[in-house]
Amino acid sequence: MPGNRPPSRYAPDQGLTTRMVTTMFLIGLLYVVFVGALLAILKGSWPIILLIAGGLFIAQFWFSDRIAAFSMGAREVTPEQAPELHGAVDRICALADMPKPRVAIADSDVPNACAVGRNEKTALVCATTGLLRRLEPEELEGVLAHELSHVAHRDVAVMTIASFLGVMAGVMTRIALWGGFGRVGNSRDPNAAIAMILIPLVSAAVYAISFLLTRVLSRYRELSADRSAALLTGRPSALASALTKVTGEMAKIPTQDLRKAEPFNAFWFAPAFSSKESLGRLLSSHPTLEQRLDQLGRISAQLARP
Hints:
Shape: elongated
Distance between the termini: 39 Å
Largest sheet: 4 strands, mixed
Keywords: Cell membrane, Hydrolase, Membrane, Metal-binding, Metalloprotease, Protease, Transmembrane, Transmembrane helix, Zinc
Protein name: Protease HtpX homolog
GO molecular function: metalloendopeptidase activity; zinc ion binding
Helix content: 55-70%
EC number: 3.4.24.-
Organism: Streptomyces lunaelactis
Order of helices and strands: HHEHEEEHHHHHHH
């Protein structure tokens, strides 16, 4: 049975599992507090609030991977259309003893790759045309092993849901303000003015806290995926070479193309920045290149020991 399938050969990461559980618990608790605050402030609108909260969460769980793939311009391809990419994915999946995900290509010169999907059955791994043009076969396999690690460890699903909860807070706030105060705003209730101030403040706090929590998890999961991919393939130098090449090539990409890719940085193999001094680097979803290369260097030395 699929439910009894043994784990893949990717090295388990207890630290990643602990961080995923902790992040989901804290963000879930934060979301419950947020909904509770909305219910307390907008007493007469509780059915709408609960309906919207439940509907958005269900929609996010079932359709987030499709929405993300569509937004990135990912186009699913067959083995005949992309034999080299499919061959690399086949080799990694055989090495890891895991089901093969759907394979897609995004028509973009930004050299990158990503994985989306709430589980192994719905997973999709995508590489951009810019990445495929620039990397050697061993480097491409290292990048794909990194992305498939996210699928095997299920952290891509956790990141997708966790990221969406902060966005959901903002959406619900706008709906609550629009639906709840059309009636309240016309009354002379002194509490209405206070509520009009409190709701955006609570929403902003929820978004900020959820953003910071997901960023902390995201940095660790990228290091975990690098480590797992290097140990699985036994070629940390190939992954280090791909990282160096992708990061170096990113500086040559037009700013307009980088800005299109920036919203999906949490899913990309390497972050896209439209400015070297961007504030995004301070709140990056990825560890620095130096941190990643340093870890791969230690793994390479470890594997070289007799």
